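DM from R.C. (forwarded with permission)

"hey, sorry to bug you on a friday — could you get me a structure for this? deadline for the figure draft is monday and I only need the backbone to look sensible"
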Amino acid sequence: MQRSDGRAPDQIRPVNFNLNIAPHATGSVLVAMGNTRVICGVTLEEVVPRWMKDQSVGGGWLTAEYSMLPYSTTTRKQRDIAKGRLDGRSSEIQRLIGRSLRSVIDLEKLGPRTMWIDCDVLQADGGTRTAAITGASLAVSIACKKLLEEKKATSSPILKLIAAVSAGIVGGSALIDLNYEEDKAASVDFNLVATEDGEFVEIQGSGEEATFTQNQLDEMLTLGRSAIRQLIATQRSILDQSERNAAESNESGNQESRN
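My reply, with the result:
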């Protein structure tokens, strides 16, 4: 099938991560997947939810919030606060983000604090929830590294990187990483979340007034796992580059002080 942007059925959109985009966040990432852009910020509070205290639950907690900014779509999207309530879609997505990241965080190692993940969509062109999860994974990794550097944790709470991608059936063909036009035309819509060692965290899927076969399901899962491997390889590469840059900066600073 010929896609509108020229991609092959198994080809993800161009991906870019801009780290430390929000100076006051403990960890932050601006993630771009094609024309979809989401800023993911992590902040830490040295408190836990009241229910944890009431139930004598140890460790910490991780929770997420998700929002689409008014100018993220072609027509202005009303803010939730103006409606006086969070819409059902945003509520579902932020729960998905929270569940996904809790699957790879050791809450005991996090300690008695709350990790907030805020994901704000700057521009929407399909796959905002999957981009948010993929960006949040990096932001959490950065935040956990800072916990270690500040000696607030003895070992990193993050166990693995995760990433997410959309898949679907469009015009009878299985496609990966759908943009808005493809998502709108899809007869089957899937969202896949998996870890860097290939284990699935969550699979969301449904026929949009259609059914799908076992073969189509298997094809979407195969495409999804391949795409997630690519995303996590990019995540790992950007983290490694960030660490090299930090090491070079420290070495340069040491040399200047010696001189």
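R.C.: lifesaver. The domain at 15-258 is CATH 3.30.230.70 (Ribosomal Protein S5; domain 2).
me: no worries. The two ends are 62 Å apart (CA to CA).
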